[in-house]
Amino acid sequence: MRRLGRPLAWACLITAILISLFPLYWMLRTAITPGRELATDSAGLLPRHPTLFNFQRVLGLASREETRAAGGSGANLDFFLYLRNSVVYTGVITVVQTLACAMAGYAFARLRFRGRDALFGLFVAALMVPPIFTLLPSFVLVKELGWLNTYQGLVAPSLLMTPFAVFFLRQFFLGIPRDVEQAAYIDGAGKWTVFWRVVMPMTKGPLLTLALTTAVWTWNDYLWPLLVAPGEQTRVLTAALGIFLKQSPNTAPDWTGLMAGSALSVIPVLLLLVFFGRRLVDSIQFSGMKG
Amino acid sequence: MTMTLVKPVTPTRTMPGRRGDGRVALAFLAPALVGFGVFYLYPAVRGAWYSVTDWNLLSEPEFVGLDNYAALVRDPLFWNSLKVTAYYVILTIGTQMLLGFGLAALLHRLTRSLLVRSLLVVPWLVPNVTVGLLWMWLLDANLGFFNHLLVSLGLDNQGFLTSPGLAMPSVALINSWSSTGYTALLLYAGMLLVPPQVYEAAAIDGSGEVRTLFRVTLPLMRPILAFVLVVSLIGSFQLFDTVAVTTKGGPVNATRVVYFYIYEQAFTHFKMGYASALALSLVLILGVLTFVQMRLLRASTSDLA
Asked: Do B16 and A137 touch (CB under 8 A)?
């Protein structure tokens, strides 16, 4: 039993990894299958006639006629435009929100002012509210401002804060020792200087950790961008995929095209994992422990 | 840092005075306060107001008192959405916690490899919309991979997402695929918090691996298990993306979860008032659930101390 245990445990773990990855392989396998042949060639581990044409057509590199001939709906993804929108949406929110929430988190952790605990309590209470409750009136507000299908409408609600980020960073600032800050105060530095020159450089790691979590969430966000910015010019990747599906005929969805588009949408987050692997994986474990 | 001990020590600097840091604090808090005021507080107040009006987004909201709430109590689709959501929550939390815990235990016992953990978390990184599309294809009634599998095993084709009985388990399966690795990592982090001496002691006392897992690891991890449970529970109530992509609430309301129902009332039927009343009810339901769970959390803090 003992001798069998370890290989068996490894077998389970490897199976889990295979289950995690196989659907993504199948996505790729379908994406390189010619659209016309999918009906007769959807079972083997590899398609009989692999092709990159589906990528070309969702990227808009093939003509409408060629696309129709290949069994597509004629709809294509203006991929690079949507990619740019997703990058802007994710980048702006991640940077601004992290900085603004770091400031707020620091104030709650270190500064003394009247009403601090009550205010923090209010923020924590907001943490418990399911987003849909504020999403409806936020949509109305963005509409009233005339910000539908604009970048400002897209980023506004989570640009300056989310209760989670403030809560997370306050917890973090509470945990770091005060000594370094005290030394800087003795040197005559003010709160503002200490925060930007001493505390922020010291806490790059956790800030990056939070920023990565925020980036993944924002990148994957679907409902808000779909409601507020479905227009061609401000459409983000997730919304574009949803709309691409709607344009595809219900009875016979354009699977090869959809899978090609899906595969493209996964590349950016995979790059994030490649470049920030340890940070990203740590960020998950970290957010768990801090709760 | 160039500012060394040049200035004399002033006590007011070292110990922030009793008067506090009101002004500086305001500067630190200003961006977050604006964000909170405009996109949390103000919408919350307006949401509460909409919930007592009849409003189609075009004309002026008309005050109707508690009519919306009276209507939702009698709305079978609302109760159905709660029932369906609860079913989903039970299915998905059950599989995620069990599989996640098993995976975490395997990771903890076998390897510290970053690669292994990264691979397990890949599905969580895939956007929900993509997950939905991908699994719609995998579960396709005619050409999907899973039906090829069933047929090759000599079984019948199944309409995983189109038969009322299978639709919700399928949605739960989809989301379990995407977040079990994530849950496993959270639990694995919790396991790392248990000091190794505890395991050594257990081993010396002759406790086998399985016994150690259930008698030592599991009890010591109660707080983090409770935390992960609360987070997944709240998250599961907000199921939207997968349903919006794959089943759109069907077949026959089998997957019309409460989040999707609210969305439809607001943006398909333009009943903003009714949707707000539904949303506020969901806030209350989740509030009660969170409160109950917090009590359970507090009851389980006496561990590693």
From this structure: no
